[in-house]
Amino acid sequence: MPWVTDGGLATALEARGHDLSDALWSARLLVDAPAEITAVHRAFFAAGADIAITASYQASFDGFAAHGVDRSGAEALLRRSVGLARDAAAAAGGRRRWVAASVGPYGAALADGSEYRGRYGLSVAALRAWHRPRAEVLASAGPDLLALETVPDADEAEALVDVVAGLGVPAWLTYSIDGDRTRAGQPLADAFSVVAGRPGIVAVGVNCCAPADVPAAVALARAVTGKPVIAYPNSGQSWDGRGWTGPSCFSAADARRWVAAGARIVGGCCRVGPGDIAALVEAVRGSGTPRS
């Protein structure tokens, strides 16, 4: 049976009445309302998720500095994101739950939609230098693994893979894609080849993409890398820089196709709530024995 990751943390926080229009997005609540983050993690665990992804996706030293948080304070908040997920996992009881520390792309910290475009004009070396301090802090907080997620182009993937190689914490890497290409327009086969043969990357796949793009991407990731594959798409709605538009086309039943294509870990991303994850769990596991 597949493992199941959670859904959209920000989506669930907004459903609880929080305005996340701030540039820090859900990471702002690491300062203002950390108990709410724990509550959402617990809701996803109660829905049947095995893995919680932390609230550090859009957290950055620059972003916290703009809110008056100094370097040491930012490090403490990054560690808090892992601790909150760990607290929720402990409170869930029963079988073991896992914590994946989110390492979002450089574009997320710009808070202008760049994570859906890539091609920031930075070299691989510059991207390594930017990502390394945050990844080091998150790794030091003791997550089970690092989630290198919503990566829009292969250059940034190369930088991230290099950064995590010496941290002693396993990682997965997921691209944000458009059809058979990265958001930056590179062939997806070339992008997946970046992580082939890299032992620190224990799973590879896609996230925050249209559900319809998942089956082909899963099959390709498996063929190119030989690694376990992960897929957690968004609702299929479109981000216009201000909000999500269009109808949702996320169907829990579709997750069976992702698993059939080779996915070992499935879940959801933006606009996918705890109810959707509960339905996904039922679709891929039915009344079978949960993961232990």
From TrEMBL:
Statement: the UniProt record of this protein carries the keyword Plastid: no
Pfam family, one: S-methyl_trans
Annotated ranges, domain Hcy-binding: 1-284
UniProt-annotated binding residues for Zn(2+): 208, 269-270
Xref: SUPFAM superfamilies: Homocysteine S-methyltransferase (SSF82282)
InterPro entries, per the entry: BHMT-like, HCY_dom, HCY_dom_sf, Hcy_S-methyltransferase
UniProt keyword terms in alphabetical order: Metal-binding, Methyltransferase, Transferase, Zinc
Cofactor: Zn(2+)
Zinc found in the keyword field: yes
Protein name from the UniProt record: Homocysteine S-methyltransferase
Organism the protein comes from: Pseudonocardia adelaidensis
